[in-house]
Design goal:
The chain is mainly alpha-helical and 306 residues long. It is built from two helices and no strands.
């Protein structure tokens, strides 16, 4: 027998869960976007004019080559289509031939333009090359001038140093000679001053010794009697002069008359030996007499002249 199917047990009602509190959502804080590190720009390479012209020429030549290849293909296509039309002429073949011929014409014009462009690029490249050569020559000349200037500056410093040393040696020699002369003069002056000081010291010593000797002599000499007190004795009056005689002075006696000179030759004088003249003794200085005292003048009228 088949096992009896179990009856499903009745489900218990689920316990009600307490209502969950609604959480208040805070608005999300916007974060400041991180600053991107500024990419360092590589320094632009300076292209020389001749290099730029060469680059333009190469690009023009490349375009011309591509256009020439395209033109060659278009011409080959025209040749093929012409052969097909000659074999069997159809509208489609004729239209294709016309189109191919137009393409060839346009391609030829473009190739001619590119050829002119290439020629112009060649000219520009040559000009740029010449300018670059001039710039290089200028740069080389500037470098040469700078090197010459540097060399001359170094040489100038060396020459200046040598000249200064030479001048210093000459100046020191001259100055040494001048200083030697000054030292010699100073030494001479010092020697003279020392000698003068020695002489003065000797004179002072002699004077001091003389004074000391005189002092000693004076001290050894007998003392004089003391002078008497009172008035000094009157000086005796000088002898009075004899009064001058009045009247006219005596006449001078006449000189003796000279004998008349004899005529003829004068007689020869007998040669007489002269005795050696004795020198007169030197006169002694006459002592000055004291001036006589004048008699006191009488009062009243002066006496009348006779």
């Amino acid at each position: 027998m088949a096992a009896a199917a179990k009856k499903p047990s009745p489900k218990k009602p689920a316990a009600k869960k307490p209502a969950a509190k609604k959480a208040t959502r805070k608005p999300p804080v916007k974060k400041a976007p991180a600053k991107k590190a500024a990419a360092k720009k590589a320094p632009a390479k300076t292209v020389s004019p001749d290099a730029a012209a060469a680059k333009a020429l190469a690009a023009a030549q490349k375009e011309l080559k591509a256009q020439s290849t395209s033109l060659t293909r278009a011409r080959a296509k025209v040749k093929t289509l012409r052969a097909q039309v000659a074999q069997k002429s159809t509208k489609a073949r004729e239209a294709a031939l016309v189109k191919a011929r137009a393409d060839v014409k346009a391609g030829a014009a473009a190739a001619a333009a590119l050829r002119d462009k290439v020629n112009q690029a060649k000219v520009d490249a040559k000009v740029a090359k010449a300018k670059a050569a001039v710039a290089a020559a200028e740069k080389k000349a500037a470098a040469k001038v700078a090197a010459t200037e540097k060399r001359l500056a170094a040489k100038s410093k060396a020459d200046l140093k040598a000249a200064v040393e030479k001048f210093a040696a000459r100046w020191e020699k001259t100055r040494s000679a001048a200083d030697a002369k000054k030292v010699k003069a100073a030494q001479k002056k010092a020697t003279a001053s020392v000698k003068a000081a020695e002489k003065k010291a000797e004179q002072t010593a002699k004077s001091i010794a003389k004074q000391a000797a005189a002092k000693a002599k004076k001290a050894a000499a007998p003392k004089k009697a003391p002078a008497k007190r009172g008035r000094p004795a009157k000086a005796k009056p000088a002898a009075a002069k004899a009064p001058a005689k009045r009247g006219r002075p005596a006449k001078a006696k006449p000189a003796a008359a000279k004998a008349p000179a004899k005529r003829g030759r004068p007689a020869k004088a007998a040669a007489v030996k002269k005795a050696p003249a004795k020198k007169a003794p030197a006169k002694k200085a006459i002592a000055k007499k004291a001036p006589a005292k004048k008699a006191p003048a009488k009062r009243g009228r002066p006496a009348k002249k006779k």
